[in-house]
Amino acid sequence: MVPRPGWAHALVTVLGALAAMGAVAALGLWAAGAADLPGGAFPQVLAATLVTAVGGTVRLSGDAGGLAGTEGGLAVIPLSVTLTGALVVGWGFVRPLRHRAVAGAPGLGGWAARIAVLWLFVLVGLAFAARHTFRIPLGDGPLGDLGELFGIRPVVGFAADVPLTVLIGLVWLAGVLLVALTVSHDAPLPAGLLRSRASVRPPAVAMVRLLLAAVVVALVVALAVAATRGRPVETFAVILLGLPNVAWLALTVGLGATWDGRVEGPFGLPMPRVLDEVLRSPDLSELNLGTLVEQDGAKWWWLLVVDAVLLLAAAFVMAALSPARVRVWQHAVRLAVALALTVLMICLTARVSARIGLSVLGIGDLGEGFSGEVVLAPRLWSALGLALLWGLAAGFAGAAAARAVRRRGGGTDR
What we know:
Elements: H1 7-31, H2 42-53, E1 58-63, E2 68-75, H3 79-94, H4 105-129, E3 131-135, H5 142-150, E4 155-160, H6 162-183, H7 191-228, H8 232-254, E5 259-264, H9 273-279, E6 285-287, H10 289-296, H11 302-321, H12 328-349, E7 352-360, E8 372-378, H13 380-407
Antiparallel strand pairs: 1-4, 2-7, 3-4, 5-6, 5-8, 7-8
Helix pairs in contact: 1-2, 1-3, 1-4, 1-8, 2-4, 3-6, 3-8, 4-6, 7-8, 7-11, 7-12, 8-11, 8-12, 9-10, 11-13, 12-13
């Protein structure tokens, strides 16, 4: 009799995920220069990064007195940290179940509930720790003179929204556990769900492998850039904080999707230099294959080639994992739906909105050296339409290839 996973297993899973996410986030923030933040704010910024990594909300606020105003907002998910936590939590969830042939819904629910209870305490702790206030120097010039004349000492701070962070963090956990249970080949399911597993697991596995493959390709490119073009610290900041952001953005761009964005001010987010150059304009700019090629040469057409190869591989994996009775058109439809859902997830998690600014007596709105704005949002419906078309085409091709392999006796069940 295999013992049921208990509180000790749950504690190891949650603490392991927290430690892994914390290590990745801390190294990424250090590479991005956050270790030099004033007022010993690094631990609070680290907590805020972990909060946003699980979908939580961090609100910016300011106080500059009655003669000045501050404004700001932040919505960005460091997906390197998110992916690290998801992999550790998912592995920790399914590992104790791997020796079981069957599992009842109460047993699975109880095991997930133990992890959720401990995760709840982590979310509350992180949300309360993610708060800090910075004093803003006005510098020289008109803003500085006005600030000195009227005794204005503006401050800006951030604080996590505790209830919203807890709610979204628990939803994130539920999604991770569901995906882990779906893609695992040896985790048991209640009897009522076994029939649907044959149709749900293959596309889920294909999409997870597609996303991970895109990250691996991006990692190889990033390491090559760090080794050959200098600025390794900046590159490692991108890797440790936003590699999936860039990889999955590139995946959608390779499919033909367009993102609208703008980068203003002296700061931005960790991202490849070419993206910053395309987006740095006073108005919204288009980010797609055409603008990348125009900015940095024809090499960006390789995104299209890489996407085609990765999608064909994903389609083959899905068809190989599916029962032989599934028809080719069913493979195509399932891959199209799965890819559209995957692109939807990318569009929801890779978008960016960050803005901060200052004005004194209405002068110097978004003052120089302090203000900035980074915006990046997808054209959602066109991206989803392109995903459906690509999924249908790749699904047909992958199913045909898998059938040819099966006829030669080379099929697989994993």
